[in-house]
């Protein structure tokens, strides 16, 4: 969030992750803003409870650190993507990532909203969306986007979606310490 109120999305979190873990790990206040983009359930708990679990359990520490590493890699990839790729490529990456978290639902977004998430002007977003719709990859109608051909959308997207997806898949594969009763150190590949 900048002083003038403008913002850009640097990461998105779904049911695979959590917001505010840095504050739980290091007794700091979160300096980020969290914007809920999809309807659905979410759990909330006091930071003190998370902090106590982090200090008590090696398993919880490992999960928090793994989640934080994965989130940081997404942030770094998103920064590179926003700086180096076209609005259309960034839109493809973003739509795919949000679609993963929406579990296949139609996406309830306007071009104005997407322009804020992508750090692009609304006209560029409209042109990119029209191009994707003309190619038969998406359909959109006033605040509702449906992915029609996900496989082709992945091919049109820049490499950033595949890189972030691979990191999330690795995170979701449990490390040895995730096995109950296993107290050995996390093994690195």
In short:
With 189 residues, the chain is mainly alpha-helical. Helix content is 53%, strand content 3%.
How are the SSEs placed, and which strands pair?
Elements: H1 21-26, H2 47-56, H3 58-84, H4 87-102, H5 111-118, H6 122-134, E1 138-140, E2 145-147, H7 150-156, H8 159-172
Antiparallel strand pairs: 1-2
Helix pairs in contact: 2-3, 3-8, 4-7, 4-8, 5-6
Spell out the key features of this protein:
189 residues; mainly alpha; Arc Repressor Mutant, subunit A; two-stranded antiparallel sheet; disordered C terminus
Overview of the molecule:
With 189 residues, the chain is mainly alpha-helical. Helices cover 53% and strands 3% of the residues. It is built from 8 helices and 2 strands, in the order H-H-H-H-H-H-E-E-H-H. A hairpin with a 4-residue loop joins strand 1 (138-140) and strand 2 (145-147). The N and C termini lie far apart (37 Å).
